[in-house]
Amino acid sequence: MPRLPLTILQILPELNSGGVERGTLEVGAEIVRRGHRSLVVSGGGRMVEHLEQAGSQHFAAPVGNKSPLTLRQVGWLRKLIVKQNVDIVHARSRVPAWVAWLAMRKIPEAQRPQFVTTVHGQYSVSRFSEIMTRGDRVIAVSGTIQNYISGNYPQTPVDRIHTIYRGVDPAEFPHGYQPSDEWLQNLHREWPNLAGKSLLMLPGRITRLKGHVDFLKMLVSLRESGLAAHGLIVGGVDRRKRRYAAEVKRVVAELGLEGDVTFTGHRSDMREFYAVSDAVFSLSSKPESFGRTVLEALNLGTPVIGYAHGGVGEVLNDVFPAGVVSVGDCHELTDRVTQLLEQGTVVPPVSQYSLAEMLEQTLQLYEQVGLAAGGLTGSAA
Questions:
Q1: Domain residues for 188?
Q2: I need a surface site. Which of 57, 228, 229, 236 has the fewest CB within 10 A?
Q3: Where are the beta strands (DSSP E) in the chain?
Q4: How far apart are CA 218 and CA 215, in angstroms?
Q5: What CATH number has the domain bearing residue 259?
Q6: Residue 299: inside a domain, yes or no?
Q7: Lowest mean pLDDT among 40-49, 54-63, 180-189, 242-251
Q8: pLDDT band (50, 70, 90) for residue 375
Q9: Could you tell me if 120 and 27 lie in one domain?
Q10: What is the pTM of this model?
Q11: Is 175 inside any structural domain?
């Protein structure tokens, strides 16, 4: 029988910013490129336009709110799955995973899609979080996450867990890349106080676990040692985290760093900011699942300094061991950045963790699951 295309539905809370969201867009584009159908359900956001431009179809629904009212979406999602003849539902977050799982329970087995989940973080261990291990296939985004699943949910069959590391496109983040003169002129026009200083960047949304206080304390230590360093905090503020963002700005004032720290807000030109930075940091107090920003900066050739735990520790140990520092050790952190800046450390080209490899493994998994369920022989819309 002919190999018909699969219809794959990814479901996540929203499409505004972040590694999960970017991964959804990348996988959606690859699904389309390979001749399958890509559907995405989310609460919407600024990335929807890019998703649709790459050929995916988006359905807006509030499937990410931690509220009993979200369960109202179960019936709607069930009808969508049946109407669109979905072969695989891929859940990337806990609340959407529950909505999807409950929606599929009442679909007759012969029509029921296969269920794939991706564990993107080390969630609190609970029955609520356990839903992410109930997939017919469970993707772990790093060795750290694979160990988290096996250690906390031992009932998950080992053969269902597939470790697929996140990846970066070296064409998007080429080694040695430099921003255009126009971009640099605009940067210095907007923030003239950056000129002539070593730029140290802490990327990511402003949330409590990202290590902002450690970063600020390091800047104070560098200033006391006579190093003219300027901190760039590059990332947006989630509407639920505004109080914490205000707290970080109060700490900046208390430490006398108002002239030494710039909050850029959300940026779509992360590549350029990585490239002009003398070092990029990953200082999360809780182990990160992977550390995509780390890999993006290293691909460009920018040194990265990060805490030795989680996926960030994995990536740094594989790619740039000189950037590994003990968790929470501000003295070691200050010494390491001073050493890297004074020596002018060169980061070699990165050969691991490519986007192409991640997409290949993900699509192979979809096709294996679809073939096992009969999806490649006659269930396309």
A1: 181-343
A2: 228
A3: 7-11, 37-42, 57-60, 88-91, 114-119, 137-140, 161-163, 198-203, 229-234, 261-265, 279-282, 304-307, 324-325
A4: 5
A5: 3.40.50.2000
A6: yes
A7: 242-251
A8: low
A9: yes
A10: 0.86
A11: no
